[in-house]
Amino acid sequence: ALVDRMTFDTTMDYEVEGMNPVEASTIAIIILCLLSSTASIRVLMVEEGAIKIVMNIANEAMARMEENTIEGADGADAAANENDADIVCLAVAMLTNLALNAQTRSHVVSAGAVPVIIGLSQGGNESIARACASALRGLTSDDNTDNLIRIMHDGGIQAVLYLSSSTRDVVTRRNCALAIRNIFSHTDTLE
């Protein structure tokens, strides 16, 4: 099976026989995103290192998008950027799915996903920004004040304020407003 041919090593590089990196990233992130939608699998995914893998896939896709933008996007580069934007959106959707579970939410925050999500949100792509706002809202829907304080220290408030002021998208703005409400609804975060 394809999943059996997929290998993940300690440097988070991944290879699939006979596929280019974009194809391999697309298949890997689709599988991970689908798996993360199943509540009973989320904890196992976190324990097996899925957070680092998905952050690596998203960062590589963003790097390819930036490289294509710097080189000047022709038709092929525009299509490649669209594919990479889809990869990033799926990666952030996976992190959002992991944020649905209180047990895995703290692992997402402690694995350093918040700065990655913030970095991805600032690329100027509206779909990615929407996905990132959703992830930040999900990560802040926690009674664990330590998580909320870490999100604040990682720049979560500034990112949410930037996202809400730089978009006209109602869904992105709503998720940003909910993230701010979630953070400031705990008195410990006001200190």
Q: Major beta sheet, specifics?
A: 2 strands, antiparallel
Relative helix content: over 70%
Strand order of the largest sheet: 1-2
- What's the overall geometry? globular
- Low-pLDDT runs: 1-12
Secondary structure tally, helices: 11
By DSSP, the count of extended strands is 2
Alpha-beta content class: mainly alpha
Strand content: under 5%
- Rounded to the nearest angstrom, the distance between the terminal CA atoms is 53 Å
Instruction: Write down the Rg.
Output: 17 Å
Please tell me the overall pLDDT.
Answer: 84
Listing every helix as H and every strand as E from the N terminus to the C terminus, the arrangement reads HEEHHHHHHHHHH
Give an overview of the whole structure:
With 191 residues, the protein is mainly alpha-helical. The chain has eleven helices and two strands; from the N terminus they run αββαααααααααα. Strand 1 and strand 2 form a beta hairpin. Helix 7 packs parallel to helix 10 and helix 8 runs parallel beside helix 11. The longest helix has 24 residues. The N terminus is likely disordered.
